[in-house]
Amino acid sequence: MFLFFAMTLWPATAGAGRLEPAADSPAWMHLGADLLLVLHIAGGAIGIISGAVASLSKKGARVHRASGWVFFISMATCYVVAAGVAPFLDEGWRTNTVAAVFSLYLLLSGVRAARVKKLKGGLEARIGVLIAGSVFGIGVLFAIQGASHPTGTLDGSPPEAFITFIVGGLAATVDEVRLLRRGELRGRSRLVRHIWRMCASYFYASGSFFLGQPQVFPGWFNATPLPSLLAFFPLLVMAWYLWVYRASRGIS
After folding, report:
1. Which end of the chain is more exposed for a tag (fewer CB within 10 A), N or C?
2. Global pTM?
């Protein structure tokens, strides 16, 4: 549905930096664009808050499960809207499209790892290799293009910004190949897959918001370490739980 809206709005928004129909566009186009914008922003905001609750609550507890489902639904909405809209925009469409698709893939595969007690390799893992491997390759390509561009950037981002695509894509590719070689994942290995993929997906949202949208925050806030701390919070949570997992041979 979100992709359909984006495609029908495309004639009036092509070349724009964001989904904003021309002033003389029909009223339904303005309403559709506003709806997509609200869904994207609301989904991201609710997702960031519910993700924090899920990260800080006891794993497996009712609060964790409930906040986790809120996180999943809200972030899936945010990512689907972004993935559907970004390709039809002019400014930053390449990086935003890759980030949205990869974040959605991590989210879906992370949730599945938590829901299935015996995660088997198969078609899903092969599709995962294709997606993750493509993100890795695109990250390398974007970094090279940014470094060779006269401005030293690609879509306004320096080559260093694409390290997230390179590292994330490579890690996910290795993870999928590992699943295919082993045939299935269960127990601790399955939980590790769930934790790192959910936290990585969360990081793409928090980083995009706290570091990519400084104009929405007051100057004093941007002058403090808070934006970076909040942006990297999901990775800190991931590192903590993986360390606890390694130390205790289990996750509570």
Report:
1. N
2. 0.85
